[in-house]
Specification:
Length: 538
Amino acid sequence: MYEMSVRDYTIDESSGVKEKGKYLGLTEEGTVNSSGESTGLDYLGNLGVTHVHLLPSQDFGGVDETHPEDSYNWGYGTQNYNVPEGSYSTDPYHGEVRVNEYKQMVQSLHKKGIRVVMDVVYNHTYDTDESNFNKIVPGYYYRITEEGDYSNGSACGNEVAAERVMARKFIADSVVYWAQEYHVDGFRFDLMGLIDIETMQLIRDRLDEVDDSIFIYGEGWTGGDTIAEGEMAESENAREMPGISVFSNVFRRGIQNYVSGIFDEGTAMNSVLFGVVAATENEMTRQSMGSWTKDPTQCINYASCHDGFTLWDLIRQNCISESEEMWKKRNRLSAAIVMTTQGVPFIQSGEELLRSKVAEDDPERIYSNSYNANDYVNSIKWDSISENKDMIAYYKGLMEFRKEHKGLFYETTEEIQELLNFIDGLEDNVIGYTVKEDKNWLFENTICIIYNPNDENTSVNLPKGRWKVYINGEKAGTEVLSTVKGGEAASIPDTSAFVMVRTTMKTEAIYGCAGAVAIIIAVLAVFLVFRKKRRGKQ
């Protein structure tokens, strides 16, 4: 999952895109930066992502559609739920233009083999008293306290009463409309913890009727106190929401500290372990973190997103006295962990470009919440490709490796419990585990994954066999980097991930082959005896 903003992705001059910051900017092919390197849509197709997560593109407030250059906003304040945002269109005055251009954008991404996920904000509205909902039936669509105030669990002034019949129907009808009319492939629900489970289950059921591959996930928390009652769509309730995934904020906080060398007496390591098993029921995490999910596909693992510091800015601040090369090692370690855990990996656009959000007039000012900053702070700087080719290749290699190994994305808790095993006896903070996967009817792979966040090399006794290394602290991909002999200690470099694969014949295949050979020998022996007797008679 690759999170991006329609505006941020192409608005910078270095994008080489004609329709900068527009839906059509994501349809242009052949765009390049000042060094002639591919940008925009072509870059996305080459990187290897399977899904793009678009920040809100439903019609939102906070930006003048006719003069979008005068203001900036991420868009988490929806005004018209069933209309594309006008500031991303080339002509906001004519509704059919934004509709057609949105569809062209989706179609162009689909042609690159990339599915489109919409970030949707059904938990609150931009306006309150003057909102469209209040114009229909005043007060009905919002939660209102006994004192007559709007409940503010969104921290944005109001919250939608999704549990009410017509509010629930509206939300479900709306997502179905986007899926059918615009061919959207998924929905990410902002502050999903403010929506009740029954409503989310209805949405899942309705979308299954359209296409059961449509992906649904969201933030399993609120933005503040709410008067909502009953079971809400919070992360801890994921088991009650089959087919709906949640962000693992536990993993996010843990991995940020883990790769920065802030171990918090094992808390960071436990949080990473929680992500390794995708928040499923597991002996390793039962005592420390518990579990949330019914199956691993319900867990979204990530280290950074639009909300908060970029990964690069966070590492630089946590490890301020270190060199830039050391920061890069920590960045690669983070990427490798996210891409080799179970569940669904999620990265922020530009993470592989070491994206930073600094003020144009003050490089020392780093934004953690840039929702209304400006284009300079939020835009992707495409000329940074040249200086980050190694990092881009690392991310691309991680995606290629993941796609080739089913063992990294099992779909059931039972598979993880049976086939994923942790390695005992490792040094403090070091995580190691193996995962078995079918290769074909005769052979199976065992993937061995080691995370070493320490500032010194660590020694790990590998299971016997010949291990092919595909990912280390510098490179990643589907080509063998080196081989390691099992049955003895292997040295794992500091601040790095080490991923190896061993291919062996399946035990049942060995027995099967042995049995087949025995039968063949027995048949041959009978044949020879029979032939000898016939010759004797002759």
